[in-house]
Hints:
alpha/beta
Amino acid sequence: MEHQGILVVVSGFSGAGKGTLMKELLKRYDNYALSVSATTRQPREGEKDGEAYFFVSKEQFQQMIEEHKLVEYAQYVNHYYGTPKEYVQQKMAEGKDVILEIEIQGALKVKKRFPEALLLFVTPPSAEELRRRLIGRGTETIEVINARLLRAAEEASGMEAYDYLLINDDIDRCVEEMHQLIKLQHRRTAYHLDFLSRMRDELCHLDENNK
Ligand code: 5GP
């Protein structure tokens, strides 16, 4: 159990800077593996299949659901997104901390299935800053930006379900905070049940030997 990696869910409003945050975290530390999701949305410019996402058709996605190949899935602004199970299981077994960068519905499903997972929510310092970043990114039409802002307002009501809030106003500080929180999560008793029971056992025997 000590060497098994943990599951870290990172959510946040579209435009909160999660992508940059993940990239920086993976660059600095080698104990992380970023899960690549499957999606039915179209690739954005520069997004490669198998890197940003596995871009699949609705039928292929449906099949993955039926064959229980996803840890979780959800619909987000007219498209499906899901986490392939195999990669997550394999990397955790290798001792890597696996990061799922997913939206809130999926995050809540993960928490239900894996209560010991760490849930982090990333937000910019203000709503106005969020709008500025989404427009500045220039990858979506104004309709899509508005739909994403609407979705952000919905997601904002679920922020309390997360374990920690990361305010992304300084990428450097945010990356370090995230790394520290994950390190701390490793010390949670839930990850050391074998140790706890061995310790209890040993203490019992010490007690017996002293009689
Ligand atoms: P985007 O289209 O901007 O890449 O992603 C839209 C939203 O879908 C983001 O909030 C992203 O975190 C979320 N997302 C990406 N992959 C998954 C996934 O596998 N499952 C779920 N539930 N959400 C995902």
